Amino acid sequence: MDPDAVKSTLSNLAFGNVLAAAARDYKKEVLANEKAQSSNPVNEEVDLDELMDDPELEKLHADRIAALKREVEKREAFKRQGHGEYREVSEGDFLGEVTRSQNVICHFYHKEFYRCKIMDKHLKTLAPRHVDTKFIRVDAENAPFFVTKLAIKTLPCVLLFSKGVAIDRLVGFQDLGTKDDFTTTKLESVLIKKGMLSKKKKEEDDEDAEYQESIRRSVRSSENLDSDSD
């Protein structure tokens, strides 16, 4: 047989094999794309249906909505009492303010004192975070009776009231490291330790974690079903 003819035949066969392989790969890719496009809407619908039909998730969702509703109602009740913001009160209103709420944090300040302005900044940040505690301030110059009655000698002076009774106080920055650059978190931590602010309850954290885990379980279950159907 002519060597050139043999070589040409082998070359043609190799080229044909390459074309055949390319054709097979192209066909596989087209089929895969068609399958993905046709299955995506169905898969998404199945995922949503399974999430909505999960009794455990529905109960957790309902419980969470009820808890959030109660929390909103509680916050609104506190706001009607003047909670949720850092407010200025006069000497005449002071007694009523500290006796109408369970916990009250009151800053006696002087408008010209730099450290009083620092304390104002931090208390203003904390007030909306801790709606269950009332945050107020009193101009010491305009409240001589209570400055004397409460034996306030140094400013800033933050008095801590529980049920209308002064149970503790922060004098200057003694409890905050004595320096001006303390953080709001530091002040918050001190007030929590003194019982004036509350941490987020552990059961609320557990409830959130359980709610999120239930969603993840439902999603994983849907993915497994999709994998089995493939």
From TrEMBL:
This is Thioredoxin domain-containing protein. GO terms for cellular component: cytoplasm. It comes from Brassica campestris (Field mustard). InterPro entries: Thioredoxin-like_sf, Thioredoxin_domain. Residues 197-230 are annotated as: Disordered. Residues 89-175 form the Thioredoxin domain. Pfam families: Thioredoxin.
